[in-house]
Amino acid sequence: MEREEDLMSGIEDKVVAITGASSGIGEATALLLAERGAKVVLGARRSNRLKALTARIENAGGEAVCARTDVRVRDDVAGLVELACERYGTLDVLVNNAGVMPISPLDDLRVEDWEQMIDVNLKGVLYGIAAALPVFRRQGSGHFVNIASTAAHRVVPNQSVYAGTKFAVRAVSEGLRQEAGDKLRVTIVSPGFTRTDFAESVRNPEVKARLEESRDTFAMPPDAIARAIAFAIEQPADVDVSEVVVRPTAQV
Asked: pLDDT for 223-238, tens place per residue?
């Protein structure tokens, strides 16, 4: 039977940068990894929530630093990686978590929402790769954890563009894994319905109501995804958890 200190050994003292860290999956991941001894570098657009989370981690005895980060801005993402390297001298893991989900029927022609999903969900991941990959190559080690979705496995009405961005995240991540060689690790985590504030960005009233009903009925807590991320990180350096799909038992 594994002891608690054995489970912590693969996470303790690792430097982990997390985008979209101010709420939901990102917040839960930051808290769990910090509790297990990681030094977390937190990025998100909502500075007040980000600073509050950083203080919460520090008050609990953990190590955290934060920077306002809009993943649509390449320099912001590069700055988050630079902050990790400047503060801690290294970056072990980048969790590309930031995402948006303003879904709607294509007939609504909400083109700005489509562009936002592409910019955040896909280009944000690409900017993370562009920022961290040279660092990982220089170090000879590093781990990308890219957050996709069960929508990257199954397309349903109203989620065409969202699913397209998440399919793309899986494709890019798998290509990166194959190119990475034997020194870098790449993990895709595909969450199902998770209890976050994703429905707030949905502008179609009917779609929003259905999402909120499903969320309130059977969605998982964000901690379920945080544990999956921790599982991938804590493996030995020569073990790559390529993909984890986590969904509520009630989700089709």
From this structure: 999 999 999 999 999 9
